[in-house]
Structure to design on (807 residues):
């Protein structure tokens, strides 16, 4: 161990040791060798885990999957963080950004004991090591990344580019937490990661934790050199300083350097870094911190494939792109490769790091932290263990007044903002709103009555008008990647939040959504993973009310992406007014292990349902607007008009009113959908309707005209097996968009009330022959509406001033 000095304990970590003793260097190297040995074994071996006999072909896996190149660097970093945790009592978690670092994280979880505690059959014996090796990237086993199955992981690594965003999300509201985050130099070339360096402008030194970025330069990606490894070190350090960090540099592992030397440099540098962090935290705590701190970061340069084979088949492998995946690819078919694998694993001297039974020797695990201080066992990385339910004000108290359907108008998101204001008030340390500079634009401004936007860059006097402050519950940066990553990290470490966005621009995080959905899908099947708060989207400024911004802001296709995911994870809600939005969002914030996508308008629109009616309707998820229809009790309707979304509901009700006035004998049923998953079959989704329930609403043989918020084919996808699907005609967005008026937008896509009436006339048997003049009038009215916009730049009064007339 090291010898501690007599300086008083800092408020953030223990005192600095006076020196790193030789036995500590030996302990660091023993862990490093053991972790490397276990990592190689995971990639290659089925049997003979401790090399009791020379390796034979049948000891190796038939399919070699996994990645070696980044792994030794991760093992090296983990070993040294162990020392820091043990000696200086820091609460630390580890995020492995490189996409293929799974062997390292699994190996370290095994060495510190967490893996065996989590998976009792993989114990500290030779047979336990055999099982550890066999399961890796093997059918019925575990993935090759730091997946949900890996204790201590909140970041899989395959989601390339998001490690720093996840890290800062974990650090928010965790003032004592150090998030050690390894950024691979390939990952550092991605757009999300390049942006994420700026997260340090959003950390409150007093109330938040600390992210330690560790830029791991091993020089190569899959088949190319990396940019940051091939620029001068001075230029790289200047780049990091320009991002607001203080860079510390450690290099080693090249040529025949004494292993102790690089361990000694790394240990001393980490002590300097932790001292630097402690000074910042102490100054923040006592009020003497001046300006924004330049938080430390580490640049670690080691060879790719460090300690692995140097030459294979005459080609360089260590410190080369060839070590990225499996350096020895033909161990089952080439005796030379098999012998090289045997020599490689033997070079770690397993007899010095494991005892006769297979358990790690004391020197190997001497620096392993204990209990929850182990990075693999920290409760923060299993956020459901520390999650506290939100204290939610009663959303009914925020209801908008609806004396009768359509009599009043409200901004749905404006009403939601008043409720969210008090959610923030009542949950000051575990709820945040994230958004790419759109919180006010999406009409959530009421939240600024009780909070500010967190900001730790420079201030100007006018910034007070924009609610900027060092601490706040609203996180805004003009990067959807950053907002999504922050929120994911925040949720996975036990907290709550929402991500509000313009609907068209949420596509920027399609891949991140996919990866988080996959994480939840995996975590839901792992008993020891406790439920975490759902990822809640609020998509406003949506396609039908982006007429002023034009086609670039018009795209509802995120819904189609979401519906591709497993039904136990995703939900899509299309509330039709303010009260249904309030009821929906209360449900979303109470849910766990879901991704909830809610689309709602921000502009004043008609209120259709009183709060009691809204609650009943939201609980059902789908139902009749019997106050709007003209069907006769006990008789089937002639036509069903269905709608999902606020503007489609408006147009459907306007069409219903026209039909009621012009063809009063027509029996019209109006069905409104809030929960899009209700259209699924009950065999496909837990919210799905049975065939009998679906038939009762939509009939099996009557025309159904469905006005949908998004692309029409999504509704067909959900209902293609239903009875009467051939009678279903869906109107929605058809990629016809421009800068125009609100009503012209719906006319461009044939979603307008007049076209819905035309659809009814054309699809209800016998109507066209009896009402041909009416059919022509509807076409003429559409032309007149179009011409009015061209002449006046606005919608004609009968549309703009329309209101619902009760029967």
């Amino acid at each position: 161990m090291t010898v501690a000095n007599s300086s008083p304990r800092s408020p953030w970590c223990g005192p600095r040791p006076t020196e790193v003793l030789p036995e500590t260097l030996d302990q660091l190297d023993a862990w490093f060798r053991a972790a490397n040995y276990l990592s190689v074994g995971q990639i290659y071996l089925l049997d003979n885990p401790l090399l009791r006999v020379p390796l034979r072909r049948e000891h190796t896996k038939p399919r070699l999957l996994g990645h070696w190149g980044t792994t030794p660097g991760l093992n090296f970093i983990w070993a040294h963080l162990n020392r820091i945790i043990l000696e200086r009592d820091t609460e630390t978690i580890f995020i492995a950004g490189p996409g293929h670092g799974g062997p390292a994280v699994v190996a370290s979880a095994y060495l510190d004991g967490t893996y065996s505690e989590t998976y009792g059959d993989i114990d500290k014996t030779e047979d336990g090591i055999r099982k550890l090796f066999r399961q890796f990237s093997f059918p019925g086993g575990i993935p090759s990344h730091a997946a949900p199955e890996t204790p201590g992981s909140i970041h899989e690594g395959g989601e390339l580019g998001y490690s720093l965003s996840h890290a800062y999300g974990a650090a928010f509201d965790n003032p004592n937490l150090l998030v050690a985050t390894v950024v691979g130099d390939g990952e550092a070339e991605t757009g999300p990661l390049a942006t994420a360096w700026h997260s340090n402008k959003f950390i409150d030194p007093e109330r938040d934790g600390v992210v330690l970025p560790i830029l791991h330069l091993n020089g190569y990606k899959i088949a190319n050199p990396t940019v940051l490894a091939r620029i001068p070190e001075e230029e790289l350090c200047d780049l990091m300083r320009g991002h607001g960090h203080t860079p510390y540099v450690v290099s080693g592992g090249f040529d025949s350097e004494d292993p102790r030397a690089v361990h000694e440099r790394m240990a001393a540098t980490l002590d300097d870094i932790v001292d630097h962090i402690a000074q910042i935290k102490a100054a923040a705590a006592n009020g003497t911190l001046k300006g924004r701190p330049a938080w430390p970061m580490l640049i670690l340069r080691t060879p790719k494939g460090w300690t692995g084979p140097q030459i294979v088949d005459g080609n360089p492998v260590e410190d080369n792109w060839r070590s990225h995946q499996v350096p020895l690819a033909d161990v089952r078919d080439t005796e030379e490769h098999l012998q090289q694998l045997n020599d490689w694993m033997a070079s770690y001297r397993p007899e010095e790091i494991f005892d006769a039974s297979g358990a790690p020797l004391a020197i190997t695990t001497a620096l392993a932290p204990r209990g929850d201080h182990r990075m693999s066992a920290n409760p923060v990385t299993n956020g459901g263990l520390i999650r506290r339910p939100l204290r939610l004000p009663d959303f009914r108290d925020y209801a908008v007044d609806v004396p009768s359907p359509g009599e009043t108008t409200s901004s749905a998101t404006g009403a939601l903002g008043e409720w969210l204001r008090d959610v923030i008030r009542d949950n000051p340390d575990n709820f945040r709103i994230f958004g790419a500079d759109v919180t006010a634009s999406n009409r959530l401004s009421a939240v600024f009555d009780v909070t500010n936007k967190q900001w730790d860059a420079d201030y100007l006097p006018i910034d007070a008008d924009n609610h900027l402050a060092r601490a706040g519950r609203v996180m805004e940066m003009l990067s959807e990647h950053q907002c999504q990553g922050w929120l994911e990290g925040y949720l996975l470490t036990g907290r709550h939040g929402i991500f509000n966005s313009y609907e068209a621009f949420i596509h920027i995080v399609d891949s991140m959504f996919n990866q988080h959905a996959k994480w939840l899908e995996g975590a839901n099947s792992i008993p020891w993973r406790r439920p975490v708060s759902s990822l809640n989207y609020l998509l406003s400024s949506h396609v039908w009310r982006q007429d002023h911004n034009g086609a670039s802001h018009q795209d509802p296709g995120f819904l189609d992406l979401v519906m591709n995911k497993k039904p136990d994870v995703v939900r899509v809600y299309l509330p039709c007014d303010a009260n249904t939005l309030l009821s929906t969002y209360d449900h979303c914030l109470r849910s766990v292990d879901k991704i909830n996508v809610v689309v709602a308008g921000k502009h004043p629109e008609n209120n259709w349902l009183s709060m009691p009616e809204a609650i009943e309707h939201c609980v059902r998820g789908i139902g009749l607007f019997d106050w709007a229809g003209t069907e006769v009790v006990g008789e089937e309707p002639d036509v069903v008009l269905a709608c999902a979304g606020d503007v489609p509901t408006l147009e459907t009700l306007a069409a219903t009113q026209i039909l009621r006035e012009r063809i009063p004998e027509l029996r019209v049923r109006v069905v409104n959908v809030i929960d899009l998953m209700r259209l699924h079959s009950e065999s496909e989704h837990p919210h799905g309707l049975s065939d009998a329930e679906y038939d009762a609403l939509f009939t099996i043989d009557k025309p159904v005209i469905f006005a949908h918020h998004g692309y029409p084919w999504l509704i067909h996808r959900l209902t293609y097996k239903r009875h009467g699907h051939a009678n279903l005609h869906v109107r929605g967005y058809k990629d016809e968009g421009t800068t125009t008026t609100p009503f012209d937008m719906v006319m461009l896509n044939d979603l307008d009330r007049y076209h819905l009436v035309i659809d009814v006339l054309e699809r209800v048997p016998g109507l066209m022959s009896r009402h041909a003049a009416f059919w022509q009038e509807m076409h003429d009215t559409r032309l007149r509406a179009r011409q009015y916009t061209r002449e006046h730049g606005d919608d004609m009064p009968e549309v703009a001033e329309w209101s619902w007339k009760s029967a």
Summary: The chain has a mean pLDDT of 94. The first helix runs from residue 22 to 44. The chain is about 35% helix and 15% strand. The chain has three domains: 25-381, 395-605, 622-800.
